[in-house]
Amino acid sequence: TQLLEQSPQFLSIQEGENLTVYCNSSSVFSSLQWYRQEPGEGPVLLVTVVTGGEVKKLKRLTFQFGDARKDSSLHITAAQPGDTGLYLCAGGLNAGGTSYGKLTFGQGTILTVHP
Amino acid sequence: DTAVSQTPKYLVTQMGNDKSIKCEQNLGHDTMYWYKQDSKKFLKIMFSYNNKELIINETVPNRFSPKSPDKAHLNLHINSLELGDSAVYFCASSQGAGRAEAFFGQGTRLTVV
Questions:
Q1: Dihedrals φ, ψ of B16, to 5°?
Q2: Contact assignment for B100 to A86 by CB distance below 8 Å
């Protein structure tokens, strides 16, 4: 069974601060996605990383995939109240050479950014 | 245009009842899923269908029966509802081969009383 440990579970910060969310596993994933979920809505994909060591930037968000493809981090610079939400990491696996898209999710990080 | 739409958004029902949730995607994806999100926000896959065929069944009780009439639709029927079934159920879809990014519906909040 593949597990993803996400930390911290809760994060409450002031506007303008930086933060990092971590996602760790003992398993290797073929891809790692980060999603953001707002109350009453479904998760929305932010980014996918597929290559060990890959770094992707999305405005103030920086995503990194570990060299061994077992861990990932999300760093937000100068957080804003609009960044408030639930952040989820999810590991994807290819089964038997054909991917049916099974995703294993971390427990989520609830981020609150205070003005 | 909503990419993945599921109905209803809210469902309140009594123990023992049978209920269905419908899902449709207009993204042309081959693969559809049902996920369950518990009160602690943990998302867990329940079922996966690829082009109408059941691919993944994650040890879900057989009171839950998914049905895919075509690759754009995946419905979930639940028999004999129990209190523990209360959760938010998400439908999702993705492109089939080699890409696992999922597009989620808005969710159905099921409350069993």
A1: 90, -15
A2: no
